[in-house]
Amino acid sequence: GDRCCRKLDAGKKLALAHHKTEMVLISNRKAVQQARISVGECIIESKRNVRHLGVMLDDRLNFNSHVDYACERAAKVISALSRIMPNNSAISSSKKRLLASVSTSVLRYAAPVWVTALQTRRNRSRLNSTFRLMAMRVCSAYRTISSEAVYVIAGTIPIDLLLEEENECYRDRGISGVRRRARADTVRKWQQQWDNAENGRWTHRLIPNVSTWLDWKHGEVNFHLTQFLSGHGC
Question: I need a surface site. Which of 31, 70, 110, 187 has the fewest CB within 10 A?
Fold first, then answer.
């Protein structure tokens, strides 16, 4: 690697910023492994994680650091949006959903690369905790509402299902109708989760079918309607 850098520099074809070089040593050993290399005149020490093309790569390749990174970025977006769409604002839920899609895009970025991170409860919990805040803003819900109920009322598919859908579409890219079939499969999984959920039973009595609720085109969910649908509020 160092010899290639020297050739490029010598040929004046490309000037490299050696001090900006980063390295991560990937290992499955329990003890943290570290290494040191020389690039030009600089000594580069390995890090626990580095960011490459917007994705955090860590030394265990479990993408825990990327989940944390994505959630922190999404939380900042949600916090900024909270100031312009408080619970009692006149902004409709459909417009709030459009604004909140920014945070969803942050969480879904490059999902096929790191979707294996969903295999751990820690990462699923971290993602859902962040995504729940976004759903609460969309439907103007109180913090006491359950995650299962707030996703249904807000009409937002749970983030873990969205990420799995994104991965399925990438895996079967090029196949006609893949996105339509993937979405239908996602809604089916969501319905199963909703039917089996222990929380949000009052909301389930009022909205038993998530597909019908998603397709409903009349009216908007607001602060007062959310209180009624969730059973939480004044």
Answer: 31
